Amino acid sequence: MDIRRVKQIISSTADIEVKYNGTSVWIDQLNEDGRTATVHLRGPLEERTIVEVAELVEE
């Protein structure tokens, strides 16, 4: 995924499905380095992880 699309998804009110390694995640923020984002799993667990933006896939 590219940085422009990550910014659009973060600012959108729509429920846009994004996956990281085949698992649905919410994008919390684009990090200052511009290459990584903080995400958490959809569902009751809210453990946050920093991932490469290039590894995110929009479904």
Automatic annotation (TrEMBL):
One of its GO terms (cellular component) is endospore-forming forespore. One of its GO terms (biological process) is asexual sporulation. It is found in: Spore core. Its main location: other. Keywords: Sporulation. Induction: Expressed only in the forespore compartment of sporulating cells. Belongs to the SspH family. This is Small, acid-soluble spore protein H.
